Amino acid sequence: MARTRTSPSKTPPAAAAGRASSGAGMTEPKPPTDAQLAASLAQTGAAAEPTQLPPGVAGAEAVTAAAGVTGTWSTGVTVTALWSINEIRNAWMYGPTVGWKKLHNGRDGAFSALVTLASQARQTNRQINFREEADGMVYEIYLW
Questions:
Q1: Closest among 79, 82, 73 to 121, alpha carbons compared
Q2: At 66, is the secondary structure helix, strand, or coil?
């Protein structure tokens, strides 16, 4: 069998680069324009927390604010709702007896663990114990 030798491609580098970037899985995200950023911020609004309470618990938030938060443990709480938004480390959980509580947003790993525990409690309808500090955020969750 005779061997054949192929010559290198004569395609100009600019055309080859255009072809490589348009292949499957080769595209890169583009930064948003100023107009896109402005439109995105206008959609999210100024409130970075839930703005509505579930039916039947209108006074829960007022009771929590009046009592004050001083680094306390809450036990036997059932998580009935979760809320998050497309912002860095911003998620909340709701318990009928405690109202909306923001999950601590210090580090990615800790935040992911708290969100996972809260969502697992919500899905399985299990009670949790959690520690809330004076800043109003949940720092620890124990799920049994």
A1: 79
A2: helix
